Amino acid sequence: MKLCMKKKYIKTLFFLVFLFFISGCITEVDPLSGKKTYTLLSTEQEIKIGQKIIPSAINETEGVYPDPEVQKYIRDIGYKISSLTPRKVDYQFYIVNSSEVNAFALPGGPIFITRGLLLKMDKECELAGVLAHELGHINARHHAKFLEKNFGMSILLSILGIAIQDSGYASLVMTLAEVSASLLQLKFSRDQENEADTLGVDFSYKAGYDPKGLLIMFEKFKTLQRTTTVEWLSTHPLPDTRIKKVKEMISQRYPVSSRLIVDTEGFQRILTSVKATAESYEYVEKAKRYIRSANYYEALNLLDKAIQLYGSNQAYTYRAMVNMNLKRYKEAAEDADKAIKVDRLYFKPFLIKGISLTKLGQYSESINTLEKAKLLIGNNPDLYYWLGVDYQAVGDKFKAIDNLSTALQLTDGSRGWESDAKRRLRTLRGY
């Protein structure tokens, strides 16, 4: 009798837990299977999270590549493939300045290809294969499943700004920073990679591309790995068994056809265009090494050469950084402004311009710049410190206290301004 009651109690408890779980879930149709499924994140919420993290992704990858024709070409290929995928979300495609060999996606649609990866490609089908693979991750909701597994629903809602009224602002932006960092370094499982491969090959084939494009890139990654770091491999594990599976899948399911696109004149045109700017970017990479060792005049010389060849947002941003370190604040603000005019999603030049304006005593102009920067990335402690300095200078005591307090909550303790921030807070609070 007791055993029977115990079993009944366990069943009731399980049923209540199940009801509690599904009450917090949303019912959506899985675009891949066509079946109803329970999820914590709606498609709309997933898209919003992805949108919030775009500026962080662009900042991490040195800004958007500044050639509109190249950007349009990447977008056009991306839209061509994504229009044939079952999941309809806010797909966006970017090529970014980073020299790393990498491609990645964010929840709900954004996909990034680095300039470094594009330069390793020879044919359009290779680009299509990589884009299709990343579309596979989005269609299979791999990012959303990671968020649902690793972050509670209240946290995900709080970073969307629609819940958790008792959370302090600093803790909220730190949560967003944690979610952002996790997504930008997300390492997929082997099962997820196999699923993205299967979907990617299918997507590229349906779009009219030779599906061996992805396979060619896999082989290139393996070869490159012997002599350099391939950032893509750190988040997309590529064992030999995976390559074998893709080979078998292509040979068994996707017949060879002369109608399949291998390469186009258009792709060769944009590849030639990107290669023509390579020397400028190489000067920037060399300059970054001098910046790390505080050899600013050598760095400045290289950055001048880079800008003479090709004035990218990346080159202007690093020259602005060097000028700021040399206390040439007017030149720093001007260079940062040139970078901003090219790329209004790139956080770093906004921050450099704001700090430089503060140093020039142009506090209101700095506030305007730094508040725009906050809309891009709201978890940078330096941003809040300099806003605190600015607001104190213009006599806004409460905003000065709020920003300086947030800066101290966000800092890792090694920024160099912590003692000054504490002194300013004591003065502002009157003790």
Topology (SSEs and partners):
Elements: H1 2-23, E1 26-29, E2 36-39, H2 43-60, H3 68-82, E3 92-96, E4 103-105, E5 110-114, H4 115-118, H5 124-139, H6 142-150, H7 153-159, H8 169-184, H9 190-206, H10 212-224, H11 231-235, H12 240-253, H13 265-276, H14 278-292, H15 296-309, H16 313-325, H17 329-342, H18 347-359, H19 363-376, H20 381-393, H21 397-410, H22 418-429
Characterise the protein shown here.
With 431 residues, the chain is mostly helical. It has helices at 2-23, 43-60, 68-82, 115-118, 124-139, 142-150, 153-159, 169-184, 190-206, 212-224, 231-235, 240-253, 265-276, 278-292, 296-309, 313-325, 329-342, 347-359, 363-376, 381-393, 397-410, 418-429; strands at 26-29, 36-39, 92-96, 103-105, 110-114. It folds into two domains: 43-265, no CATH class; 278-429, Serine Threonine Protein Phosphatase 5, Tetratricopeptide repeat (Alpha Horseshoe), CATH 1.25.40.10. The protein has 22 helices and five strands. Strands 3-5-4 form a three-stranded mixed beta sheet, with helices on both faces.
